[in-house]
Amino acid sequence: MRMSDSGKTPTGAVPITEWPITDDNVTVIPKQVPYNSTQNNICSDEAQKGNKRSHDEAENLCDADPPSKVMKYLDIVTADIALAKWWRRHGRRLISPAVLPKSNNPNTVLNYVQRVDIAKDFLKNELKRLTALSLDTSQTLSKEDSIQLHSALASYHEKLGNFSIAKVEVLKALENDPHGGSVVSEYEHGGTEAFYFCVFLAKEVLWLSAKLDKQMQIKSTQQKHIETLQTQPDENRCFPKCKAVERRCFKSLNFEEFFTKYSKTSTPVVITGYLPLMTDSPWTFSYVKNKAGKCKVSLKKYVPESVEWARLENDKISSVAEFVDSVIDGEETGNLCLFDWSLPLHCPQLAEEITVPRYFAGDFLQRVTHGSLYHESWPSLFIAPKGITTELHVDAFGSNFWMAVFEGRKRWVFFPRKDQPLLYPQYTSSMDPVFEVNLDSPDLNHHPLLSLTQPMECVLEPGDLLFVPSGCPHRVENLETSLAISGNFVDLSNFKAVKEELEISALIDPRAEDLLTQFTSDTFNSKMSSSISDLPWKKYKMWPPDSFNDYDITS
Q: Buried b / exposed e across 437-465, counting CB within 10 Å, b at 16+?
């Protein structure tokens, strides 16, 4: 659903590179508001003394050095990095470990930390410091320092929820972009080291600008719906009943009807009866174990407080055989699952057994050069014990999604793309939202906009094939121990959305930039065939096909 070809950090994610913080690379902490020992259980006099000592050192430096040197000493960094440094040096002695999320993921830990009053005080004081610095030195800053300072200010305002002010700081930063705020792409023209640094910073700022635009648009949409709700009696609010997703037998569903009725209209559908045609042999737990048992996999764990995609985080390494045995034997797996494990990358012998259904066989990701982003990512394997839930999420980069279930049952709940703002999305370290709502126990007092959503529901049985349209938030509950494969794909139904998402990702991800370049090239052919057939793996990976001249769908 959301992995890169490398299986590492997905497109759009921004890891906190300052974690853990080393003692020789610690920010100067300005004088802080006194800490409240009763509020956070732990208070450190040593930390407070350290804050004053650092503040005094900074003041002495200000008397001796010009502004640009002062800025470098004071370490003008984004709010995420500053908070990580503060946490490493001071915060972890001030906040009780007992209240922290059970997670080793820095984004998850810091997302909790930033909501604690003591951390808010730090962020607000850092914001005051940087604001004063921008006012005192605005006429003497180099381009790179000015971009860095205003982008840092924008990140603090965003962290504190001041999106419109953050946008103003972004625009100030882009005034110093050597290309006047446009997307910088003229590396071949040459330039100084400072020029390239400005280019790098400008791209980061443009990415932040796109993130702010998305958050402001969501906030505006939510406000309009809140005003509508205020005209209705509170007692009439309830979480709507889920509509059933339509089920269609593959024998009566050709590609043209699928594309016109479901794909182009962003309508989920369950396709029945197809699975026996999809693999050379029936896939069971034992069969997969025999084929892929020696392969090592990184298992995922559900973390309720996680800010990562679908609230899943990396856990331990296991062999496929060990994990399958534990699942079949009903052992306690500790909420672990095998999630979105790329077969082409990690177990090509299984991938080669697959026949890709006609509905998804026109995938544009197979029309780009070998080694391009996502070219080898899917199909991927899913193995999950009964009870494991993948919380509400949206598939990455505007892609469509399909899933085929071989064993077990899965309950899916969907929402249309337009419902995203009604589900209270939060954007932390990437463009992939984490949704606040709890669908197990909807709280309409806290999340009243849930009453305006249009949820859909289906239970996937063994043998079912599911289509999930681009941009549709969905939640998956494993009603039984399950075995499934899935794929993300691009065709004319979501091509525009994919390019829009890649335009943002390309600012910070060179592989996304390369994929976007290929998709937007005049030589890229986006025609599709209304008579396309199911494609065995080798034909699916071969482009262009012999019948390309017969492709007749252009929009």
A: bebeebeeeebbbbbbbebbebebebbbb
Return the number of other C-beta atoms located less than 10 Å from residue 50's C-beta.
15
Q: How far apart are CA 274 and CA 298, in angstroms?
A: 30
Are 479 and 371 within 8 A, CB to CB?
Answer: no
Number of domains in the chain: 2
* Residue 332 pLDDT exceeds 80: no
- How many Å apart are CA 531 and CA 309, to the nearest integer? 36
Q: SS in 3 state form for 225-249?
A: HHHHHCCCCHHHCCCCCCEECCEEE
Domain endpoint, select from 165, 193, 223: 223
Examine the fold and report which residue of 223, 258, 292 is the final residue of a domain before the chain moves on.
223
Beta strand pairing status for 296-302 and 474-478? unpaired
Residues 6+ apart with CB under 8 A from 106: 15, 16, 19, 84
- For 97-144, give the DSSP string: GGGS-S---HHHHHHHHTTSHHHHHHHHHHHHHHHHHHHHHTTT--HH
The candidate with the shortest Cα–Cα distance to 131, out of 76, 183, 85, 208, is: 76
Pairwise CA distance, residues 203 & 180, whole Å: 12
| Sign of CA pseudo-dihedral 452, 453, 454, 460 | negative
Distance CA 69, CA 57 (A): 14
Percent of the chain with pLDDT over 90: 72
Query: What does DSSP say about strands 355-356 and 535-536: parallel, antiparallel, or unpaired?
Result: antiparallel
Identity of residue 210? A
In this prediction, residues 87-114 reach a mean pLDDT of: 93
Phi, then psi, of 319 in degrees rounded to 5: -85, 155
Shared domain for 203 and 308, answered yes or no, is no
Lowest mean pLDDT among 167-181, 274-288, 445-459: 167-181
E-strand ranges in 148-251 read: 243-244, 247-249
pLDDT at 59 over 70: no
Mean pLDDT of all residues in 434-447 = 94
- Same domain (yes/no): 351, 460: yes
The phi and psi torsions of 403 (rounded to 5 degrees) equal -140, 140
Q: How far apart are CA 225 and CA 233, in angstroms?
A: 14
Quote the longest CA-to-CA distance of the chain: 80
Residue 19 maps to a domain: no
Task: Name the band, by pLDDT with cuts 50, 70 and 90, for residue 74.
Answer: low
Q: Has residue 212 been placed in a domain?
A: yes
Q: Report whether pLDDT(171) > 90.
A: yes
CA distances from 466 to 180, 255, 328, 367, 383 (A): 46, 14, 25, 24, 17
Question: pTM value?
Answer: 0.85
Looking at residue 1, what is its pLDDT? 56
CA distances from 203 to 104, 163, 255 (A): 29, 19, 41
Domain that holds residue 208: 37-223
> Average pLDDT, whole number, for the chain?
85
